[in-house]
Amino acid sequence: MQRPFLIAILLISVFCVSCIPYKDTLYLQNKEQATDSTNVLVEQQKPYRVQINDILNIRIKVTDQDNVQIFNPIGEGNLNATAGERAYFDGFTVDLHGNIRIPELGKLNVLGYTTEAIEQKIKEKLLAEQFKETANIFVTVKLTGLRFTTYGEINGRGTKTLYQDRVNIFEAIANAGDIPDTGNKKDVLIIRQYPQGQKIHHIDLTDVNVMQSPYYYIQPNDMIYVKPLKQKAWGTGTTALQNIGAIATVLSLVTTSILLFQRI
Question: What is the pTM of this model?
Answer without folding.
Answer: 0.73
